[in-house]
Specification:
Blueprint: H1 5-14, E1 20-25, E2 28-33, H2 41-50, E3 55-65, E4 69-78
Antiparallel strand pairs: 1-2, 2-4, 3-4
Length: about 80
C-alpha cells in the first residue's frame, strides 16, 4: 500500500496534541498515538477524513500485560 506524505501531514495537523508514530506490520502501515494509547472514536473520524476515500483506520490490540496494560495501534486498511 502507498500513501502520499500529504495525508500524513494532514493527520498530524488534525491531531496536534498527540505524538504520532508511523510504523508497519504484517497488515500494513500503522499509526501509534502517544504510548500505545487508544484514541476517541471522534478522533478516529477526524483521521479518517484526512485519509483518501479508499482507506480507513482499524483499531488493533497489540499486547496486554500487567505492567503496561493494553497497547493499541491503528492499521490503515482499505475501506470496503
Amino acid at each position: 500500500m502507498r500513501i502520499n506524505l500529504d495525508f500524513l501531514e494532514k493527520i498530524q495537523s488534525a491531531m496536534p496534541n498527540w505524538s504520532i508514530e508511523i510504523g508497519n506490520d504484517d497488515y500494513g502501515l500503522t499509526l501509534r498515538f502517544g504510548y500505545w494509547k487508544k484514541i476517541k472514536d471522534e478522533e478516529v473520524d477526524i483521521i479518517n477524513k484526512c485519509l483518501p476515500a479508499h482507506l480507513k483506520l482499524k483499531l488493533q490490540l497489540v499486547d496486554e500485560d500487567e505492567d503496561c496494560g493494553e497497547l493499541w495501534n491503528y492499521i490503515i486498511v482499505k475501506n470496503n
